[in-house]
Amino acid sequence: MRGAAMSVFVARHGSSSDERFADAPICVIRDEVLFTAGQPKTHLYLIESGSVGVYRQPAGRPAELVEFAFTGDVVGIGALPAHIDSAQAVGEVRVKCLPLDALDEVIKYDARAMRRYTDAVEREFQSRRALSVSAAHGPMAQVAAFLVANSNQNASEGRDPLILGDSPDSRTVATYLRITIEALANALSEFRRLGMIEPSTRGGLRLLDLDALQRLAN
Questions:
Q1: 29 with 116, same domain?
Q2: 75 and 17 assigned to the same domain
Q3: Which residue among 60, 91, 125 closes a domain?
Q4: Residue-wise pLDDT tens for the chain (218 aa)?
């Protein structure tokens, strides 16, 4: 780390150097997306210069600004395995990609980082809670129940219960559940945003949090 960002990181972490992160890759981006909601977390992103906007994309509504992160801040933090928000560079930004297990090091001596981490976890919790409340007896509960039923069928037939590759098309599913295609799409989008599902490399869907889907379905 160099320059002002290095000074900020050192001041916050109480160390003159951190060899663990010395070789962490640095990238320079301009107005590019760092990550999107629903994407599995692979790195933490230390902003060395510039600023990053963090946005929430509620199902069926325009994007909402959550916060701006600045030099010395780390984005991509939280407790869930997938991002619930999206992050985009504002102009030119230099970021250092840290491993996920660097989280403790990042927040240990930094009150601001700890506060931002706590806020991120709270947002994740509130998103899950809001989903549970809105899903009760609604389209989200129906879609969750459909996914769980398919998972159980896979398990009973000796297939991977976390990979749903042979599901019918969206129109058929929506008709079966007696909901609109838009409601089906919104439910799947919200599940992905909260890290419950993701597209499978084998086609179809991969269930990332079957327990959460079961709770919504019940």
A1: yes
A2: yes
A3: 125
A4: 333 333 333 334 444 334 556 677 888 889 999 999 888 899 999 999 999 999 987 766 788 899 999 999 999 999 888 898 999 999 999 999 999 999 998 898 889 999 999 999 988 888 777 666 555 557 888 898 889 988 888 888 888 999 988 667 888 888 888 888 888 988 898 888 888 898 888 778 999 999 889 888 87
3-state secondary structure of 158: coil
> How far is Cα 182 from Cα 211, in angstroms, rounded to an integer?
25
Chain CA centroid to CA 201, Å: 18
Q: What is the CATH number of the domain that holds 175?
A: 1.10.10.10
CB 78 within 8 A of CB 119: no
- How far is residue 206's CA from residue 128's CA, in Å, rounded to a whole number? 19
